[in-house]
Amino acid sequence: MSFKQTNIFEFLIDTFTSNIDNIKDTRRQREDIKYSLKDIILSAFSVFYFQSKSWLSFQTKMETSRGSSNAQTMFGIDNIPSDNHVRNILDTIKPDVFKKVYDLIVTYLHKIGVLKKFKFMDKYLLVALDGTQYHSSKNISCKCCQTKTSSDTGEVNYYHTAITPTIVNPNIKRVLPLMQEFISNNDGDKKQDCEVNASKRWLDSFIPPTEDKIILLGDDLYSRYPMIEKVMKKGHSFIFVSKEKSHKALYKTVESYKQTKSCKTFTTTKIHNGKKQILTYNWINKILLNGNTEDNIEVNWCELTITNLDGKQLHCFSFVTDLNIDTNNIEDIIIAGRTRWKIENENNNILKTKGYHLEHNFGHGKENLSQTLCTLNILAYLFHTVQDLTDDTYIELREHIGAREEFFTGINFLTTMFNFKSFDKMIEFILLSRQTDENIDMKPYIM
After folding, report:
1. Do residues 369 and 94 touch, judged by C-beta distance below 8 A?
2. What percent of the chain has pLDDT above 90?
3. Angle between helices 37-50 and 369-390 (to 10 degrees)
4. Quick one: 1 exposed, middle or buried, by C-beta within 10 A (0-12, 13-18, 19+)?
5. How many C-beta atoms surround the C-beta of residue 248 within 10 A?
6. 7 — pLDDT class (breaks 50, 70, 90)
7. What is 343-393 written as a DSSP string?
8. Residues 15, 105 contacting (CB under 8 angstroms)
9. What count of other Cβ atoms lies within 10 Å of the Cβ of residue 180?
């Protein structure tokens, strides 16, 4: 596929549609099949893109009354299926069929130079890993659900969680979501799946979008021998949080280094909210993660302690990494390690609280529906993120509107009132209407 696209939204939809064409339709091939997989999948996706549960019903009414709708002009949907039909068919489709869409979009961003903006220290891409829960119920479940039984009542809680890998940079507010990996029990194993095992599966399927070295970021859960060994075998680097309470052998060694003054250190100051703070950096290269146990690996350890002028500790951050630490890079390594918070604030939190309603039950099904809908929801977020990084008119519109919720409210209202010729025509119309008080000739914009 050519990457010489000027219309970003059309490129994204074309990329998505081309991938859908390669998905095997398991329905019996009958002449009376009214809705193609393309119509079904894009219908579900359009709801997530506009973040309106009623969007399709409005487009169906528009199609009936006017012979055309935004579902057709913007997404290329020929026939709009019912919500129940969409859910029934998507329940049979595994979410991993959409991985190629994520990969192609990130490759496109590399081709046009956007990923260069995310490079850290001129040679790394930072990929944060974290698990997040997006469904919990005592009544609704499917074969992919994890379960937790209350020790007090014996009541079973069904839930879904996923690893949401995200490309981050400390100097860029936007983050780039990659294809998620579900923490799931759908393999029939009685043992509960876990975040680390899901991350290992993700590592096996992950194809770096550039030749830049990948640094994986993660919380204390990841700084264990099996995960670190897996990361290094895959040729990646890592900066993982390492807490003292869960790494007693490591910190016993660290303390002995500090007592003998073998620990490298330097101190600097900064002004924060008008008050002076003291920053103390400590680091040790080539230290055993687990003392003298068999499951062991050599890591490099570092720490940043922030105190006020009275010596009161305000913050302490500590990490293990495979990167050799010295005076020239210790501050950057700490900054990179702390950047993992972006996966929570700029990815998971936005998906749950800023308009995407990730935790809402759009439909659960018995097979794959919950996971597939989650995948399409995050893909919609990726679409908006790409437009926010590359489309000048979209960027201008978001600057005018601001909050995501207001943006979704505005475009939902307009697309229920008017049938626009294309997505770009809608954006142009909104921008023009905000820039002038005169009556606008709508013929160039609507059908």
Report:
1. no
2. 72
3. 60
4. exposed
5. 11
6. confident
7. IIIIIIHHHHHSS--TTS-S---SSSHHHHHHHHHHHHHHHHHHHHHH-HH
8. yes
9. 25
